[in-house]
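Q: How do we represent a protein-ligand complex in a form that can be generated token by token?
A: Start from the inputs.
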Amino acid sequence: MVKLCGIGAGYVGGPTMAVIALKCPSIEVAVVDISQSRISAWNSDKLPIYEPGLENVVKQCRGKNLIFSTDVERHVQEADIIFVSVNTPTKARGLGAGKAADLTYWESAARMIADVCTSDKIVVEKSTVPVRTAEAIEQILAHKSKGIKYQILSNPEFLSEGTAVQDLLEPDRVLIGGNEGPEGQEAIKKLKDIYAHWVSEDKIITTNIWSAELSKLADNAFLAQRISSINAMSALCEATGAQVSQVSLALSKNPKIGPRFLNASVGFGGSCFQKDILNLVYICECNGLVEVANYWKQVIKVNDYQKSRFVQRVVSSMFNTVSGKKIAVLGFAFKKDTSDTRKTPAIDVCKGLLGDDACLSIYDPRVSADQIKKDLSMNNVQWDHPIHLQPLSSSSSNGLEHVDIAEDVYEATKDAHGICILTEWDEFKGIDFQRVFDDMQKPAFVFDGRNILDVGKLREIGFIVYSIGSPV
Ligand code: NAD
Ligand code: UGA
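Then emit the structure tokens for the protein with uridine-5'-diphosphate-glucuronic acid bound:
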């Protein structure tokens, strides 16, 4: 029986390894992590991450050919193939702070592999890493190889949160990069054979290892660039009387452009887009490609601009002051159908409003009160001014005393002066806005940062409405 070990039981490692277990009953899959609390949650009825369909997949395999464990070393030693899905955040201090990928977790996983392994292994990079990381990993492994042969493959993950299970069950492609020699090709074939249990061969792309590593960074950069492009257009729409949703529709019908990723928003969030572009920027700078670096930086600058533009719009519309006014924030997750708040635009918008002394009442159907308060009490690492800052204490200065977490939309909006929609949760489309309006201060404002509401209907009720990319 082939044995797999997945190091890192997070948003990628957990769902990816669970789907492999589901689709390959003849393969034993162990998912390991240094975090006891994460592993305990994977072994409980309340999984550590929310993903539609995930519970069902885990329940079908857990205890059969899928286990979650903190016994990292044992499972690494026993595995034939080791998938590494540890976090690769942006470096917060030191050389490259604010841009470069922090490979501390990857390096410590590689050193542990080198320490404990006693037989040949295939090591798969699932994490998103800078191009040529495999070279560094190879050096770490070779240093203590004790005659053991390692083959390193790059097999980046393209799943999106909120649709992870579906993306894994029916991937648009699987990318595998490996060394071009016979041993590298043999390793590629072994990994291909695993995916072949449920993915058709024409969807499995094989490349050299550097192309696979770089393709992942390029993929996220292109997606984020598309959002910044439509968000840049949304500012122009507001200034000229065009409607961004109509512009998106027109663009989407051009087969050379296609329909997806054209929704203007309050800005993109999530753990990866910003970090991966910054990583790309840093690699370009290290290679002396200043113009290329500047080109990609602009994608993040437009995203920052979009978030601050939204805050400015809220404050300026409400007579240039939100001081002491209750504002309902609907949605805190970085997108719908996830509880993940990493780099959510809601953090920047809320901090911007708190900076203007607003009182916030925040409601999100999936994000816990503790998580929201934790996010709002942390300082951001400024990507263009890398300085390491300590988290603020939960005392008066961070404005947390002006933050309430509501149990539902109606509690959040009661007596509020304004509403900000920051996540496109489906339940917000079904809000009884007449009831909300009746309970709000007047004039009652709605700022739709996701363009999900029917502006005409809201105006009929009496709201003053601002919707991203629509003339005011
Ligand atoms: P995550 O923080 O949710 O999970 C990483 C896990 O690795 C954590 O549970 C951590 O405890 C564990 N870990 C760290 N070092 C370890 C070690 N030495 N041994 C054992 N466990 C260790 O991160 P994530 O969102 O799953 O992302 C992982 C990687 O996948 C990143 O490189 C990310 O860029 C990439 N990626 C993420 C997504 C996504 O949607 N989140 C999609 C595609 C790719
Ligand atoms: C993204 C990519 O889509 C995945 O292919 C990739 O694997 C993943 O990053 C990763 O490497 O982590 P994810 O961040 O989970 O996936 O979610 P997306 O659906 O891409 O949304 C990212 C952000 O962009 C969200 O804040 C979303 O609201 C925003 N967005 C997305 C828009 O503002 N407009 C759009 O049209 C689409």
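Confidence is low (pLDDT under 50) at residues 387-396. The radius of gyration is 24 Å.
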